[in-house]
Specification:
about 300 residues, 2 domains, four-stranded mixed sheet, three-stranded antiparallel sheet, 11 helices, about 35% helix
Length: about 300
């Protein structure tokens, strides 16, 4: 067992100015009071995995135009009802010192512009908006009150519903995330739990994972492309349902002269995960496609 007597002596000699924490509890499974680095790695890896999962039921899909159709996703296609609340934040975004880049990113999920305070936050907004499991998305969702050495407040950068579970997400550069005090991290996490949400942190390791982010930024323009039910049916019928696969070049061959008109519809279905691809390799004509299971034609 580690000897803490030397630390206690130093604390006495320095007049109690040294912060002292007891050894971690035996069998503790919660990360921050054991090692902030391991908690960050596990939290980021878990959240990154959840963002890439395709839920069995989803309320996200392309924007329909024209007549209604029998084409349905695994669930009804609709945005979060309280769209107007998405653009509101719990505090004023930005600061007076102008040390942060202040901008906004459009969210198809929220159907609103999301204000951001840095380029990294803007990239995170793009990632969260793309994720099939994110059904609600908002920046600066709420103010958390916590206590470590004193009563403090913090505002997470994003709030979202991920696979039905509410998450509060903090975006930080990796260099700053590794310097967070474990006691402070534990206090913030418990404050989020008290608010009925899970707390997680994302750094550039997960947000800017390539070529995934480049693929998303390239394809997100098609997320708002208006599609008709007839065009969707034409594209989906040309693609076999998983686990069967075809290449995009083969889809172009099957559609023939209609490809010129249906190309944007096909790309919109790829962005909305109705047509599944591997986002971790560069997308191109040779990319493998398969139709998502559960789509009724």
């Amino acid at each position: 067992m580690r000897d803490y007597s030397r630390l206690l002596r130093i604390k006495t000699l320095t007049g109690g100015r040294m912060s002292f924490r007891p050894p971690p509890r035996q069998g503790a499974t919660f990360g921050p009071d054991v090692c902030p680095g391991s908690w960050l790695n596990q939290s980021e890896a878990t959240l990154d995995e959840l963002l890439g999962q395709i839920p069995a039921c989803s309320t996200k899909g392309p924007r329909f135009t024209g007549s209604n159709s029998s084409v349905r996703g695994p669930a009804s296609i609709e945005h979060w009802s309280s769209r107007g609340a998405e653009a509101k934040t719990s505090r004023i975004v930005g600061n007076t010192r102008q040390t942060k880049v202040i901008g906004a990113a459009y969210s198809h999920t929220a159907a609103a512009m999301l204000p951001t305070e840095s380029v990294l936050e803007a990239d995170c907004a793009v990632l969260l908006d793309w994720a099939a499991g994110v059904t609600r998305l908002r920046t600066q969702p709420m103010r958390l009150r916590y206590r470590d050495t004193a009563v403090r407040h913090t505002t997470p950068d994003f709030g979202c519903d991920l696979h039905g579970a509410p998450y509060l997400i903090e975006v930080k550069p990796l260099s700053k995330a590794r310097q967070i005090n474990p006691d402070q991290l534990l206090a913030i996490t418990m404050a989020a739990v008290g608010a009925g949400a899970r707390y997680a942190m994302l750094t550039e390791r997960a947000i800017r994972r390539q070529p995934r982010l480049a693929n998303i930024q390239r394809m997100r323009r098609y997320g708002g492309f208006p599609v008709t039910a007839e065009d969707i049916q034409c594209v989906l019928r040309a693609v076999p349902e998983a686990p069967s696969v075809i290449k995009i070049t083969e889809l172009e061959r099957r559609l023939g002269k209609r490809w010129t008109r249906l190309r944007s519809t096909a790309l919109a279905l790829i962005y909305w995960h109705w047509l599944l691809v591997d986002w971790h390799v560069p997308l191109g004509p040779e990319s493998i496609l398969q139709r998502r299971q559960g789509l009724s034609l």
